[in-house]
Amino acid sequence: MASSNLESQLQSAQKNILFLQQEHANTLKGLHAEIRRLQQHCTDLTYELTMKTSDQADRASRNSNSVDTSVPALAGVVHLNKKNTSDMTANHIYLEDSLEDEANSNRKQSIPTSARRNAKKPKRKRSTSRNNDFSVAKPKKKCK
To answer: Against a cut of 0.85, is the pTM above it?
Structure first.
């Protein structure tokens, strides 16, 4: 009788763990999609800022009769552009780190300590592309 109860509790716990792992995987997919969306938004804003800066520089050079008056204007635009880019980069890094910390926290909470200790982790490599997707390393093909 007691072993039957223990077996049903074990099966229930295993089902709960499987459910949590599936939810965790879905959450990670959503977080990665959000990171890609934010990266694209940052790229779009950088392009837009570059175009505005370029237009301002063109207007400044057309309006000024001498190089001496356009140089300070361009220096100001460059300084503003650097500051905006720096702020956007810092914000992007903060968001990415926050999402990664949250994902790691969720991962640790959803897997029991004994399962974490005994689990074999797949090797992951960071892609070199700009969207920072994570993928499982593929085994090398054996020659015949």
So the answer is: no
